[in-house]
Each structure stands twice: as structure tokens, then as C-alpha cells.
Amino acid sequence: MKKPRRSAEGIYIVPLALPLSLESKRGQLEQTLVNAQSRIVKFAKRYGWRDLAMDSFFDRAEIFDTKEDFDKAIANLTRMPASTVFPKTYSAALEQGLLMAVSPELYAENYPEGIERDSYEKLLAHEIAHRLHIRILAGDEEAMGPIWFFEGFALYAAEQFKKSTLKPTTAEIQEILYSSERRSYRNYADVFRFFAERIAIAEMIQHAAKIGFQEWLLNLAPHALG
Q1: How many CB atoms within 10 Å of residue 62?
Q2: How many other C-beta atoms lie within 10 A of the C-beta of residue 167?
Q3: Are 80 and 118 in the same domain?
Q4: Sign of the alpha-carbon torsion through 109, 112, 118, 123
Q5: Using an 8 Å Cβ cutoff, are 60 and 14 in contact?
Q6: Other C-beta atoms lying within 10 Å of the C-beta of residue 198
């Protein structure tokens, strides 16, 4: 298989595997991969992480036309049982240098809440953002913090739900901060944006895995909680 070919700073042309049903859209999908990388490179530059975004985050990509095939590929790559059934909304992953995703049509069908302008591009950018996050932490994936935070970071970097006008209440913020269960990505995006508007993202990243992270956040933004 061909190696990634650099076309610009942090932007790579990677081999893309497609089923026959998606071959007619190859050009469009290849451009979407480029756009997703560009989105994260711009974000990294904006926040002082340019150098961390120059090497390719993945060296190949594969897009599936059925959710079943996508789930099987994920299970195989991560050495999980072949019978593993992932949530219907689980639509992309970046593991071991391979970026995998369902098709744009399946994504829209299985996760209508996430549909917005450039939503498929943002889906792919979201997975790349997780890898940027790990690079910021010098490879320490265990230091990414609670679910709401590392998902919130990826949502923010990919600009998902950017135009949301919802303002989380004090109760909603505290519920997200102290819950270990997965919640709506839209909620994560709203809460992460709330803190990102008040506290430097780099500073939050360095505190995310520490005991008392929630209290630290709330103490820095008490005036905004009402």
C-alpha cells in the first residue's frame, strides 16, 4: 500500500479503501479527508500546537457502506469479539494509523442530531482531534481526562455544534462534570465551550486528569454559574 504523501503543512494524501458502491464518490471523499486534516491543522496553529500537527495522524483510511462491516472492522482492529455490537451512532474511529468511518449517507441516517454544514468532514476531524489531544499530552492517553472533556475537546476542535445557541444551566454543567456515563455530544460541546470561553484550553488539558478537576473548573468560573 502506498505511503501518505504530504501536500501541504500537516496535510497528507493517504490511500483510501472503498467498497464498489462508493467508488463513484472517491474524489469527493478524498477531498473530505484533506479538509478534515486542514480543519485540525488550523485549530492547532490557532492554539500554539502547530508543530504537533505537522506529522500525519493516519497513514490510510477506509470508508464502509454498511454499519455491520464498519463494526466488524473496528472489532477486528482492536481485537474485540467479532460479535461486538457498537452503538448505532458510533460512526468513525482512528486506531493504529487507520481512519475508519461509515459513509456520509449512513452517518446522516444513524446520527441525524449531528447533521450540520460540513458535518461529515467534522466527523473525521473529530477523530483526528483525539490524536492531537494525545500528542499534546506527549502520548499519555490516560491523561485525557473525563469523557465529557476529551470528547468536548474533539467537538470543539472540529467545530461541531459551533452554532449552538444553547447555554447550559448550572445544574446541567454540574451533571455533566460529575457523571461517568456517556451523554449527548451536543451537551458535551456546550459545556466544553462554556469553559473554553473562560479558561485557557491548554491549562484545562494539563489539569484534566488531576483529582479535583471539576472543582478546579468551577472555582475558576463561579461568576458565570449564577
Answers
A1: 17
A2: 11
A3: yes
A4: negative
A5: yes
A6: 13
Shared domain check, 180 and 132: no
- Residues 128, 28, single domain; the answer is yes
Cα–chain-centroid distance for residue 105? Answer: 19
Nearest C-alpha neighbor of 157 from the set 45, 56, 8: 45
Is the same domain home to 143 and 132? Answer: no
**What is the band of 164 on the pLDDT scale with cuts at 50, 70, 90?**
confident
State pTM to two decimals: 0.94
* End position of a domain, from candidates 92, 116, 136: 136
- Which of 136, 171, 189 finishes a domain? 136
pLDDT band per the 50, 70, 90 thresholds, residue 3: low
Long-range contacts of 131-140, Cβ-Cβ distance < 8 Å, separation of 24 or more: 131/57, 131/58, 131/94, 132/40, 132/43, 132/44, 132/49, 132/52, 132/53, 132/57, 132/157, 133/157, 133/205, 135/49, 135/52, 135/53, 136/49, 136/52, 136/202, 136/205, 137/205
Domain count, the chain: 2
Strand partners, 5: 13
| d(C-alpha 40, C-alpha 125), whole Å | 6
Residue with cell 456520509: 104
| C-alpha cell recorded at residue 70 | 464498519
- ∠ CA(66), CA(164), CA(102), 5° rounding? 10
Coil, strand or helix at 218: helix
User: Residue 192 is which amino acid?
Assistant: F
User: In Å, how far are 31, 49, 122, 194 from 166, measured between CA atoms?
Assistant: 32, 29, 20, 10
Residue span of the structural domain in which 215 resides: 139-226
Same domain, 96 and 153: no
